[in-house]
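DUF2147 domain-containing protein, Winogradskyella endarachnes. Tokens?
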Amino acid sequence: MIKNVLVFFLVFFMFSFLPAQSVLGKWKSIDDSTGKARSIIEIYESDGKIYGKIIELIDPKSKNPICRECKGANKNKPIIGLVIINGLSKNEDVYDGGTILNPENGKTYDCRLKFEDDEDTLQVRGYLAFFYKTQYWKRIK
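Tokens:
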């Protein structure tokens, strides 16, 4: 009996120090209509918030594309280096409360990030009211 209790506490103790899932790192964005990889996004933390920027384009149509459709401070900025995920916070099993920018049309949407069945697939959802679009990004190891 004491052996079983000790084993239980040992297993519990080991699992309590496993790292929690984190969205931080590099992700390959996958186009939801073609299934092809489009870019590499680096997700990072700054001042307790989550951000993501484009660090590489896969098969770009032009050498140094700029965000022609973006508004405000992002207008005509290079797409490589552009911060597209802004100000998300962890809320139980999702990251939300911030926005995501679509550099193709320059529009900004509310954003939610959530892991799929494993921590190598990230559900990225941009939404406006009840309308949303979801992509699945793959972690780069």
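Residues 4-19 have pLDDT under 50 and may be disordered.
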